[in-house]
Specification:
There is one protein chain. The protein has 241 residues and is of the alpha/beta class. The protein has two domains: 152 residues, 3-Layer(aba) Sandwich (Alpha/beta knot); 73 residues, Trp Operon Repressor, Chain A. Helices cover 38% and strands 17% of the residues. The chain is elongated, with a radius of gyration of 22 Å. The structure holds S-adenosylmethionine. S-adenosylmethionine (SAM) binds next to strand 5.
């Protein structure tokens, strides 16, 4: 997958993209990230990207011209044409389902706003989709773009060593994950549940399923509402009451 990013702070991307799984995925050629500085697409001596909002109000807005120049230039060079995403608190909140959908696309173009946001014509004319990372306001779209890249990159086929770990984790079936333990069996008086120590795969599977159901019901009732319960799920939940 190719991911182009447009930002006025390219330096933010270095660290997170240069370590751990994301670095490995990039090194392996599965993911090609290209970060572009919006200021390179300005035509004035001072590389200005912002201006006062028409109608007044606090703060500055990002001017349309550099955005149009940047996106048009990247699109000319990109084959296949990228799906263009503007990171904004006004977009739909990023979910695992959305990350899975984006991971199917061959190319993404991520636009990171700053200041009070961007001129509305950028969104109208250049953007396919608006995505938020949550109902809070950050200073810029760079961290949201990194969150999106991270969530998508680990879903690329071959990115994570064991495909089961992606299939089994939180949100993959509308549930959050069951509790996990590693050695030692006993630590400061805290014990690993007996069922996990016996090697009985069916009992472990059922215990994990039940824990995931209970955890989701307790912590994320709004997710639980949408889970389609199997007969076994209903049985597992009734055992508890
Ligand atoms: C200070 S914010 C501007 C917020 C804008 N005035 C509004 O109320 O929608 C500057 C930029 O940060 C990015 N941003 C801030 N919060 C975000 C979030 N929750 N998700 C995605 N992008 C965000 C957007 O690119 C936004 O244009």
């Amino acid at each position: 997958m190719r991911v182009d990013v447009v930002t006025i702070f390219p330096e933010i991307f270095g660290g997170p993209l240069d370590c751990s799984i994301i670095k490995r995925v990039r090194d392996s050629g599965l993911l090609d990230v290209r970060v572009h500085n919006l200021r390179d697409f300005t035509t004035d001596k001072h590389h200005v990207v912002d201006d006062y909002p028409f109608g007044g109000g606090a703060g500055m807005l990002m001017k349309p011209e550099p955005w149009f120049a940047a996106v048009e230039s990247i699109r000319e060079d990109a084959e296949p044409p990228p799906h263009t995403v503007f990171l904004t608190p006004q977009g739909a909140v990023l979910t695992q389902a959305k990350a899975r959908e984006l991971a199917q696309r061959p190319a993404l173009l991520l636009l990171c706003g700053r200041y009070e946001g961007v001129d509305e014509r950028v969104r109208e004319a250049l953007v396919d989709e608006e995505i938020s990372v949550g109902d809070y306001v950050l200073t810029g779209g760079e961290l949201p773009a990194l969150v999106l890249i991270d969530a998508v990159a680990r879903l690329l086929p071959g990115a994570v060593g064991n495909e089961d770990s992606v299939a089994d984790e939180s949100f993959s079936e509308g549930l959050i994950e069951y509790p996990q333990y590693t050695r030692p069996r006993s630590f400061r008086g805290l014990e690993v549940p007996e069922v996990l120590l016996g090697g009985h795969h069916e009992q472990i599977r059922k215990w994990r399923r039940k824990q995931a159901l209970l955890r989701t019901r307790e912590r994320r009732p709004e997710l639980f509402e949408h889970v389609t319960l199997s007969e076994e799920d209903v049985e597992l939940l009734s055992e508890d009451s």
